[in-house]
Design a protein that fits this description.
Helix content: 10-25%
Mean pLDDT: 89
Structural class: alpha/beta
Number of helices: 5
Bound molecules: zinc ion
Low-confidence stretches: none
CATH architecture of the largest domain: 3-Layer(aba) Sandwich
Shape: elongated
Radius of gyration: 24 Å
Order of helices and strands: EHEHEEEHEHHEEEEE
Number of domains: 2
CATH class of the largest domain: Alpha Beta
Number of strands: 11
CATH superfamily of the largest domain: Peptidoglycan recognition protein-like
Distance between the termini: 66 Å
Strand content: 15-25%
Strand order of the largest sheet: 1-4-3-5-2-6
Largest sheet: 6 strands, mixed
Length: 235
């Protein structure tokens, strides 16, 4: 029942949900050393067993676990409240990053040492943070330790939240990358030649609807609809 999915697949799946907060955890245990590149599901099942049998929760606590290879393993259904950060669980999206991101020598540490959030795992986390931040606000990205009553270092003392969020903000969306290369498109309408900045994508020119204003139209936005009225300015 647990599924391994890519970041792209995850973000597509999440589109239909609304979240108040993004909760960021590290598993602490298992760590990177417990991951062999093939045991995604096994690790997720062992976490569920621990949550259900030891902690007596109804299901695995988190919605999703981020593996060191950058893939995600589904957990609790997205529309069910997670067991994540007490007091903040309603409407939260709960993520566990597999690993122990506490610095070595800091208590409490486990005997397997600490892991680096790097490579594909970091890339996937930043992409999720970017998606969440742009949609629901970067302020709503929470580290477990942000909750004063948590009493934990989670998601690890080696992770700096401000730095990570700034890195997530810096990720450019596909649309922004495309719009960097704008084309000047010539349009003839009503016998009038105008040039509009737009982009060529999928063999179609995309231009902002506002260009109609230069032809005497009034372009507005009402109740989720674009309204276009001809003002007859050039008559
Ligand atoms: Zn935590």
């Amino acid at each position: 029942m647990f599924r391994i999915i890519t970041t792209e697949e995850l973000l597509k799946e999440l589109e239909k949900y609304k979240f108040k907060q993004l909760h960021t955890h590290h598993t602490w245990k298992p760590t990177h050393r417990n991951f062999d590149g093939k045991n995604h599901i096994k690790l997720q099942e062992s976490m569920r067993n621990h949550h259900v049998n030891v902690k007596k929760w109804s299901d695995i606590g988190q919605h999703i676990t981020l593996m060191p290879d950058g893939t995600w393993v589904t957990g609790r259904p997205f529309d069910i409240t997670p067991a994540s950060i007490s007091g903040w669980n309603t409407g939260a999206l709960a993520v566990e990053m597999l690993g122990n991101f506490d610095k070595i020598g800091e208590l409490p540490f486990n005997d397997l040492g600490y892991d680096e959030l790097e490579g594909k795992q970091k890339e996937s986390m930043l992409m999720l943070m970017n998606w969440f931040g742009e949609k629901f606000g970067y302020d709503n990205i929470k580290f477990h330790r942000d909750n004063p009553s948590a009493g934990k270092s989670c998601p690890g003392t080696s992770l700096n939240k401000v730095t990570l969020i700034n890195e997530a903000k810096a990720i450019k969306k596909e649309s922004e990358v495309v719009s960097d290369k704008k084309d000047l498109i010539k349009i003839n309408l009503h016998g009038k030649d105008i040039e509009v900045e737009g982009i060529l994508k999928d063999q179609t020119y995309h231009v902002p609807i506002r260009f109609l204003e230069r032809l005497g139209y009034e372009v507005g936005w009402q109740d989720g609809k674009v309204t276009i009225n001809y003002k007859g300015e050039d008559k």
